[in-house]
Amino acid sequence: MTAQLLDGRTLAANLRRELRTHARTFAAEHGRAAYLALLAVGDDQNALLFGQQVIKVCQALGVAYSLTRFAADVSEAAIRAQVAHAGNDPATDGVVVLLPLPGGVRQRVVTEVLAPAKDVDGLGPRNAGNLMLGFPSFVPGTAEAVMTLLGQTGITLRGKHAVIVGRSNVGGKPVALQLLRHDATITVCHSHTPNLAEITRTADILVVSVGRPGALTGAMVRPGAVVLDAGINPTAQGIVGDVDFASVREVAGWLTPVPGGLGPLTHLMVIRHTLLGPTP
Ligand SMILES: NC(=O)c1ccc[n+]([C@@H]2O[C@H](COP(=O)([O-])OP(=O)(O)OC[C@H]3O[C@@H](n4cnc5c(N)ncnc54)[C@H](OP(=O)(O)O)[C@@H]3O)[C@@H](O)[C@H]2O)c1
After folding, report:
1. Using a 6 Å cutoff on CB, does residue 190 contact ligand 1?
2. Closest by alpha carbon to 224, among 14, 66, 70, 2?
3. What are the helix (H) ranges across 104-140?
4. Helix, strand, or coil (residue 39)
5. pLDDT computed for residue 144 by the predictor
6. What integer pLDDT is reported at residue 63 of this predicted model?
7. Using CA positions, which residue lies closest to atom 47 of ligand 1?
8. Which of the residues 8, 84, 123, 184 could staple to 162 if both were Cys, CB 3.0 to 4.6 A apart?
9. pLDDT beyond 90 at 280
C-alpha cells in the first residue's frame, strides 16, 4: 500500500482565501483592521519562524500586527506587564506569546495574565481548561490543523483508536482532547511509554508530536492507518518531520508530508481565531 498524502498546502490556500473575506468583513464592521499582537522572548529560531509565518499571512490578508521582542534575560514581571497590557487593550483582538520561551521564563507565569478572550493560540489556563471541559475555547493551532486534515480523509472518528505520541501542552494534549471530543478512543504516549511500537500498531489514527526525526517508522504503523506528523525538525537536508516518511508511506493509508502537511495550516489558525473567535 502507498499512502495518500494529506495536502496541507492546498487546504491552507483555500483557508487563506476565506480569511481574506473575513478580514474585510471585520474591518467593515469595526471601522479598523483586526489587530494581532505577537510577543517574542529571546531568539529561539522556531519561535521566530512561527512569528514570521504569522506576520506574512497578516500582511497578505490585511490584518494589522505588531511584534514586540524582549531579550532572553528580561524579567518575568516585564513580560507579564506587556502580556496583560496587550490583552486589556480594546484595540487588540489577539495576543500570541511565541514559544518556546527561554529557560528562565515560566510559561504559566506569562500566560496566566493573558485575557482569555484574546488568547488566540489557546496557551493560557482558561482556554486549556475550557478545551478539557468541552466548552468553546481557543484551541492550539496544531490540534486545529490535525482536525482540519482529518476532515479531508472523510473517515469517521467515532469509535476509532487514536494514538498520540507526545504530550506537550501545544501538541499532543490538545490533539488528544479534540479527538476525544469527536468520540475517538485515545491513547497518549510519551518518553516513559514502554513498548511504544506495540501501541502505535493498534492505532487507526496516529499523531506524532515528539520533535525527533524518525520517531515513527513503518514497522510501528498498522496497514491503512491515518498518520499525521506534527514534527518540524531542521536538518542539513532541510525541515523534516518526526515520521520516517519513506517507510511509513508504504504502510499507512493516509500520511501528512513535512513540509506541506500540518505546518502550513497551523499558523493560519491564530489568524482565524483573531477574526472569528473561539472554536465552538
Ligand atoms: N506543526 C506545528 O505547527 C507544530 C507546532 C508545535 C510544535 N511542532 C513541532 O512538533 C514537535 C514536537 O513539539 P512539541 O512542542 O509538541 O513537543 P515537546 O514539548 O518537545 O515534547 C516532546 C514530547 O515527545 C515525547 N517524547 C520524547 N521522546 C519520546 C520517545 N522516544 N517516545 C515517545 N515519546 C517521546 C515527550 O515525552 P515526555 O513528556 O515524557 O518528555 C514529550 O511529551 C517539534 O518538532 C516541534 O517543532 C509543530
Report:
1. yes
2. 2
3. 107-111, 125-133
4. strand
5. 97
6. 98
7. 232
8. 184
9. no
